[in-house]
Amino acid sequence: MESILITVRTGSRPSVTDLTDEAAGFVAGKGDGLLHVFAPHATAGIAIIETGAGSDDDLLTALDDVLPTHDRWRHRHGSAGHGRDHVMPAFIAPHATLPVLGGRIALGTWQSICLVDPNGDNPTRQVRLSFLAG
C-alpha cells in the first residue's frame, strides 16, 4: 500500500474543498485498485458530491439545518456551536473508498471528492490518500 498526506487550507469559515485533482494525480498510472481518502480530524468529513453548481453551498446549508450552530451542544470548547462540528462526522464520514481502474478514479460524471470542514477554528487540515493495488 502506498500513501501520502496532503495539507488543505480550509480557512476560517465552514468549507467544502474539492480534492479530486490531487487524488487523481496520486493514483495516475497506478493501475487497478482502491483509493482510500481519510481526514484524521474529529471535525471534518469526506463527501462524494457535485461541486461548482451550488451543491457544495447546499451541503453547508443542509448541515446548518440538521446541525445548527447554537449553544445546545454539551461539547463547548472552541467557537460558538463548535459541538456540532464534533457530531458532523457521524453524518459525513471522515473517509471514502473509491475504485481505481487503469490509474483513474472511477467517479461518476458529476462526482467530486471533497473535504467537508465546518470548523473555522482550524484553518489547515490534512488528508491521507492511500492506494491499495488490486
Produce a short descriptive summary.
By secondary structure, the chain is of the alpha+beta class. The protein is built from three helices and eight strands; from the N terminus they run E-E-H-E-E-H-H-E-E-E-E. The protein has a single domain (2-133), classed as YjbQ-like (Jelly Rolls), CATH 2.60.120.460.
Verbal overview:
This protein has about 130 residues and is an alpha+beta fold. The chain has one domain: YjbQ-like (Jelly Rolls), CATH 2.60.120. The chain is built from 3 helices and 8 strands. The chain has a 5-stranded antiparallel sheet, covered by helices on one side. It has a 3-stranded antiparallel sheet with strand order 2-7-4, sandwiched between helices. A hairpin with a 2-residue loop joins strand 5 and strand 6. The chain is elongated and about 50 Å long.
CATH superfamily: YjbQ-like
Main sheet properties: 5 strands, antiparallel
Rg calculated over all Cα atoms = 15 Å
Main CATH class: Mainly Beta
- CATH level-two architecture: Sandwich
Category from helices, strands and their pairing = alpha+beta
Number of helical segments with 4 or more residues:
3
Q: Oligomeric form of this entry?
A: single chain
Give the N-to-C terminal Cα separation: 10 Å
Helix content: 10-25%
Number of domains: 1
**Beta-strand residue percentage:** 35-45%
Kindly report the average pLDDT value: 92
| Tally of strands | 8
- Give the strand order of the largest sheet, numbering strands 1, 2, ... along the chain: 1-8-3-5-6
Family: Belongs to the UPF0047 family.
Pfam families: YjbQ
InterPro entries: UPF0047_YjbQ-like, YjbQ-like_sf
Protein name: Secondary thiamine-phosphate synthase enzyme
